[in-house]
Design goal:
The chain is mostly helical. The chain has 15 helices and no strands.
Length: 456
């Protein structure tokens, strides 16, 4: 058997390094693009909301497959886990290819439909067509990373992230400033850099994926298909896709609200996204590691340990998130000064730093509890909770207060905070009820009926 580690520490620290490097990649992008213009920053921030929304179409499969791989390995069903990974890879490649074609052909019409300010449309068309054209690479990366990580090998995607970041930052510098013999292409160069770094990451991840299971993966395995296993993936995956889709599409709609407010508000939100990512980075790593552990324990029938692990991840993550939020609150203004000198944008961001202190603990609550519910296959519940709260509160009420009443970006943030805490509380009640445990086929269902001891 392969030597696999599912301890929280062994999983979380490589995931943190991977996510931290992705954060640095985004921060470096924002910093370097800000050298071009604030308009370019707004385009990048807006475009990434679009890309995040579209990736749901293949993360439905990739995420569902990842959870099932951990469950199957926990149940010692190695071949089924291997087959699931192959099926997921083929399906996501097809979806990614279709998305690439659409974004290459219709970049500006898509940006116009999403209420991108007219002045930014030419830049948006260039960026969306180049980066969007590599959605097939994003699909491959998503599936391979999920498969590799859920086998217990969190270091593989981490090493890939290191290489991808180095290549991307070096190429960004070359294309923006015309260094290393590269043309001075500005935003088009940043987009090209993204495509090249994704291509190299896919090659490295595929090499790791070949050796991820007991039996090596061969090209001939790409013919493998199992209707039954694909149905299992979709049983978990489609509600999980709706759950994720609710988040990214609601954020995309919110970005259209902000775009209506103006380009400066759009740039400010993009800069705040960078700071917010720093706040919950370690917490998100712990939540993702907890999800893998819970799925593995649940697959093995150890529901008592799975139940406790969720709370362990939650409290560790909350401590980290609160500490990081305080750091951002006190140092945020100085950090924002590295990205822009526009006094209006800085004033908007400064008004949001205090609200971020309240927002981040709510995010951590959702990441830990909802991810654990997803790990045990209770994806329909998180789907329903996210649909009602995100669209009712984070979008519906935000629209009324921000645009109809004219309260602007502050109102949007307050509604986002309310949404996080509503969803977090509802998911906590579901986890505490332990209704999900009956599907484990385990006799270990009476997980501390008093609840208090298990939750500390």
């Amino acid at each position: 058997m392969k030597n696999r580690s599912y301890s929280l520490w062994a999983l979380s620290w490589p995931i943190f390094i991977e996510l931290f490097l992705q954060f640095l990649l985004g921060a470096a992008d924002t910093f370097m693009v800000s050298e071009i213009s604030d308009d370019a920053v707004a385009v990048v921030g807006f475009s990434h909301q679009l890309f995040n929304a579209l990736t749901v179409l293949f993360t439905v499969i990739a995420s569902g497959a990842g959870i099932l791989i951990a469950q199957k390995l926990g149940a010692r069903k190695e071949e089924e886990a291997r087959t699931i990974s192959i099926i997921a890879l083929k399906a996501t490649m097809i979806i990614g290819a279709l998305l690439s074609v659409v974004l290459i052909i219709f970049p500006e019409p898509i940006a116009r439909v999403l209420q991108m300010p007219d002045a930014l449309l030419p830049l948006a068309g260039t960026y969306i067509s180049i980066v969007g054209g590599s959605m097939i690479l994003a699909a491959i990366m998503s599936t391979l990373s999920a498969a590799i990580r859920n086998t217990g090998n969190a270091r593989g995607p981490m090493y890939t992230a290191i290489g991808m970041n180095v290549v991307h930052i070096v190429l960004n510098y070359g294309f923006i400033y015309g260094k290393f013999g590269l043309p001075e292409w500005g935003l088009a160069g940043v987009a090209t850099s993204t495509v090249v770094s994704r291509l190299l990451a896919c090659a490295l991840l595929f090499y790791m994926y070949v050796f991820a299971f007991e039996r090596k993966i061969w090209w001939g395995d790409l013919k493998v298909w199992s209707k039954g296993l694909f149905a299992e993936v979709m049983r978990i995956g489609w509600p999980l896709g709706v759950y994720s889709g609710n988040w990214v599409f609601s954020q995309l709609v919110i970005f259209t609200f902000i775009g209506t407010l103006g380009a400066k508000e759009l740039a400010a939100r993009t800069y705040m996204n960078t700071l917010e990512s720093f706040c919950f980075l370690i917490g998100f790593s712990i939540a993702l590691a907890t999800q893998i552990r819970v799925a593995h324990l649940f697959g093995a029938g150890n529901t008592r340990e799975a139940y406790k692990d969720c709370y362990k991840g939650l409290w560790i993550g909350q401590g980290v998130v609160v500490a990081n939020s305080l750091l951002v609150y006190f140092l945020g203004s100085q950090a924002l000064g590295l990205f822009t000198t526009d006094p209006e944008i800085l004033a908007i961001c400064a008004s949001l730093l205090g609200l971020n202190l309240i927002l981040q603990p709510g995010k951590m609550l959702n990441m830990a509890i909802a991810d654990s519910l997803n790990a045990v296959g209770d994806t329909r519940f998180t789907m329903y909770a996210s649909t009602i709260s995100m669209w009712g509160v984070s979008v519906g009420i935000a629209y009324y207060f921000s645009l109809h009443l004219g309260w602007g970006l502050i109102a949007i943030y307050i509604c986002m905070i309310a949404d996080e805490y509503i969803r977090g509380f509802v998911c906590w009640l579901r986890w505490r009820s332990r209704k999900w445990a009956s599907r484990a086929g385990s006799t270990d269902l009476n997980v501390g009926q008093g609840g208090a001891a298990a939750e500390v």
